[in-house]
Design the sequence.
């Protein structure tokens, strides 16, 4: 983590304990998922960030049920993402896909629908 910023008089100052708790939190795997920002390069306007269904499974503590670069079917944007339970042959419905999740060949999920990238959001 970066060194503490030097503040002016109006800056909010954190206690050493609060600062230590921030450092501990951001050193954990869960924090990486909460700050997920690994969009793929797109040649068209982006609705927001692109998150694969597989990456979303991993952030919820499951194994992906699909390949990392695989899109979810176009008719499944309003349905929970299916993930594999770690160390098991069982699957679980994790969460609805985030807006920006790839669906079909050239579309993304947006408000529970699979839409073209060029749509005005």
Sequence:
């Amino acid at each position: 983590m970066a060194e503490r910023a030097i503040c002016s008089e109006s800056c909010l100052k954190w206690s050493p304990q609060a600062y230590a708790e921030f450092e501990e939190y951001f050193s954990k795997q869960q924090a990486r998922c909460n700050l997920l920002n690994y969009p793929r390069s797109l040649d068209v306007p982006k609705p927001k960030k692109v998150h694969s269904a597989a990456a979303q499974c991993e952030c919820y503590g499951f194994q992906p049920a699909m390949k990392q670069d695989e899109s979810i079917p176009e008719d499944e944007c309003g349905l929970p993402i299916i993930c594999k339970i770690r160390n098991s042959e069982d699957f679980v419905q994790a969460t609805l896909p985030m807006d920006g999740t790839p669906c079909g060949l050239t579309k993304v999920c947006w408000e529970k629908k699979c839409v073209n990238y060029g749509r005005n959001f």
User: Anything to note?
Assistant: The domain at 53-116 is CATH 3.40.1620 (YefM-like fold). The first strand starts at residue 63 and ends at 64.
